[in-house]
Design a protein that fits this description.
The structure holds 2 protein chains of 2 kinds.
Chain A (H helix, E strand, L loop, with lengths): L4 E10 L2 E11 L4 E5 L6 H8 L7 E6 L4 H4 L7 E4 L11 H12 L7 H7 L15 H13 L5 E5 L7 H16 L3 E6 L2 H7 L2 E6 L2 E7 H6 L4 E6 L2 H10 L3 E7 L2 E6 L1 H13 L4 E7 L3 H9 L3 H5 L7
Parallel strand pairs in A: 3-7, 3-8, 5-6, 6-7
Antiparallel strand pairs in A: 1-2, 1-4, 8-9, 10-12, 10-13, 11-12
Helix pairs in contact in A: 4-5
Chain B lengths: L7 H13 L2 H23 L19 H10 L3 H10 L4 H6 L2 H4 L6 H35 L4 E2 L5 E2 L1 H33 L2 H18 L13 H4 L14 H27 L6
Antiparallel strand pairs in B: 1-2
Helix pairs in contact in B: 1-7, 2-4, 2-7, 3-7, 4-7, 4-8, 4-9, 7-8, 8-9, 8-11
The chains are: A alpha/beta, B mainly alpha.
Chain lengths: ~325, ~280
């Protein structure tokens, strides 16, 4: 099956700066894919290359097997979205703007205007000039403009940036709904909670390079095997844990004991503690959050991020 | 969404609608309306009139002379400005608004967008020219009638033939207007800045006018763009002198074609990184 997005070796340089450095991406149909990175990591530049807005210095990008730079507008069939903030003509109403982009889409796009306005809850303000729209309304209008294309793939660049908490909640709910309807979504963001909430696969990018690409669950699972333990006698419990087979990295703090081990070793440890007359107050498996992983990957040295990713890309 | 072919005519129609929704367009058209009105008001206000220019002596004898005098004066800076006002803005404004990325991610190719924009800019420029001539003709006719014109060769031209020649003169005037619009589109595409494109087009036009009065540059003067704005006078001679019209056609093409080609290639290959 043809991937929704397949980018290989994308490079974009601006003078001395390499904004995007040999980026490979594979987004499968049906994915809700997070493209996560700090500001300035090259996310928007990558998206622009995917949409054919800028030419890569090296590499290529295909959307459903079509290269926008080779095939032009035809390569964008079934693809919609926006990079940075969606932009419209301020001197025209929202509806007129949608009529315009629908005309550029052709087919039955114009017939979807009412439905799209309804989906983003802008029906009542459709005749207002875009000049008077808030940032959040423009973001929603951007989604409406994308929906006119009846897309199979939606590329959204930081769709909640600049929105108030209610606007962020509504936007995420909208993306959830669209994903449930079967759309493939590529969501670029620097907000971990957003990606964790919406996405099933992620690429983490820093300084133009992808340092992880794969399933979000698998990424988080790589940090499984750590536990927090609190007992009726932490000092003695820690000594027992240090001696226990298959248990490592035992540390003691005011919060209790932390250690690493597989499930069988942990089960044996609990039996040993019971035999020693030590009661368990809490035994909690601990996985790193996406945020912790993200900072570990993106705040290392360039060498770490580039040649020795913490989790192989 | 299956592959959909969108016609360039559709894109052009929307470019015209976008122009119709912008104040800038009405400033240019308003000036094309206002200048003949001011000229006629000044003629009505006192006995003086334009002297030493083609048809300047006949402005109170036939309304047909009014638009011809207007065309003569309009060549200095008025038509280059009116044309540049929209043609210099038509691509750059999309950069300024960040809307280029909006339209370039739909189902139309870049060449269609560019072609539609050039055609829309020309529609506006020729529309402003037609409005300017028609207002001058209409109001001139109301105040001074449509008596036969006296040609630049001194022969009388009937009203019907005068109207025909006025139409021809307007078309001849459209040739350098096309060249100015093309230069403005180029500057709009390359600079990505509306004000810079409009001002640069006007400056270029004024510089060429200055070059046109430097006697040491006599050899290049027939090939300067402002000179082509007066080619229409060949039609008002008896017999018609086609030489300046033909020269205006190829000299204008010499400016317009490379400018449009450059703009086209730049537009096709450029990165859309802003907005």
């Amino acid at each position: 099956m043809t991937a929704a997005i397949e980018a290989r070796g994308l490079v974009k340089r601006y003078g001395e700066i390499t904004a995007v450095d040999h980026v490979d991406l594979t987004v499968r149909s049906g994915d809700v894919y997070g493209y996560l990175g700090p500001n300035g990591a090259g996310k928007t530049t990558s998206l622009r290359m995917l949409l054919g807005l800028i030419r890569p210095d090296e590499g290529s990008a295909r959307l459903f097997g079509h290269d926008p730079l080779v095939e032009g507008a035809r390569a964008l069939d079934g693809v919609a979205g926006f990079v940075e903030a969606p932009r419209f003509y301020p001197y025209m109403s929202a509806r007129k703007n949608l009529e315009f982009v629908a005309a550029l889409d052709g087919g039955d796009a114009a017939e979807r205007i009412d439905e799209a306005l309804d989906t983003v809850d802008l029906t009542k303000r459709q005749h207002d000039k875009v000049r008077g729209y808030s940032h959040g309304m423009k973001q929603r209008l951007g989604i409406a403009g994308a929906l006119l294309r009846d897309p199979k793939l939606l590329l959204l660049d930081e769709p909640t940036t600049g929105l108030d908490p209610a606007g962020m909640r509504d936007m995420r709910a909208l993306v959830h709904r669209l994903a449930e309807d079967g759309l493939t979504v590529l969501l670029s963001s620097h907000l971990m909670s957003e990606v964790e909430d919406l996405c099933d696969r992620v690429a983490i990018v820093t300084r133009g390079r992808v340092v992880y690409e794969g399933a979000l669950d698998e990424l988080i699972a790589t940090t499984a095997g750590r536990y927090d333990l609190r007992t009726t006698n932490d000092a003695e419990a820690a000594m027992i844990a240090r001696r226990a087979h298959g248990i490592a990295g035992v540390t003691v703090s005011n919060a209790g004991i932390a250690f690493e081990g597989d499930e069988v070793a942990v089960a044996h440890l609990t039996l040993e503690l019971a035999q020693a007359g030590i009661g368990l107050r809490a035994l909690v498996p601990r996985t790193a959050t996406l945020e912790e992983l993200f900072f570990r990957m993106t705040e290392g040295t360039p060498e770490q991020n580039g040649s020795q990713p913490l989790v192989p890309a | 969404m299956s592959a959909v072919a969108v016609s360039t005519r559709t894109v052009y129609a929307w470019e015209v609608r976008k122009l119709a929704a912008q104040k800038r367009t009405y400033i240019g058209l308003g000036c094309a309306l206002l200048v003949p009105l001011i000229f006629i008001a000044s003629l009505l206000a006192d006995d003086g009139g334009p002297e030493g220019i083609p048809f300047g002596d006949y402005v109170r004898e036939s309304g047909l002379a009014i638009p011809l005098v207007g065309l003569f004066f309009g060549a200095f800076w008025f038509f280059p400005l009116v044309t540049a006002l929209v043609a210099g803005d038509i691509v750059a404004t999309e950069d300024g608004n960040g809307t280029l990325k909006t339209i370039l991610t739909r189902s139309v190719d870049r060449w269609q967008i560019f072609l539609a924009k050039v055609l829309a800019a020309l529609t506006y420029a020729f529309g402003a020219l037609a409005l300017f001539v028609l207002v001058g003709l209409g109001l001139g006719g109301v105040f001074w009638g449509f008596d036969p014109l006296v040609s630049l060769s001194g022969t009388e031209i009937s009203m019907e033939r005068s109207l025909l020649l006025l139409g021809g003169a307007t078309l001849a005037y459209a040739l350098p207007t096309f060249a100015v619009a093309s230069i403005a589109v180029l500057l709009s595409t390359v600079t990505r800045n509306s004000a810079a494109a409009v001002v640069s087009t006007l400056m270029l036009s004024l510089i060429m006018q200055l070059l046109g009065i430097v006697s040491a540059l006599e050899a290049i003067q027939p090939y300067l763009l402002p000179r082509q704005f007066n080619a229409w006078q060949g039609l008002l001679r008896d017999p018609i002198d086609w030489a300046p019209i033909l020269r205006a056609a190829w000299v204008s093409a010499l400016y317009a074609v490379p400018a449009l080609l450059w703009a086209f290639i730049h537009f096709l290959r450029r990165d859309v990184a802003g907005g």
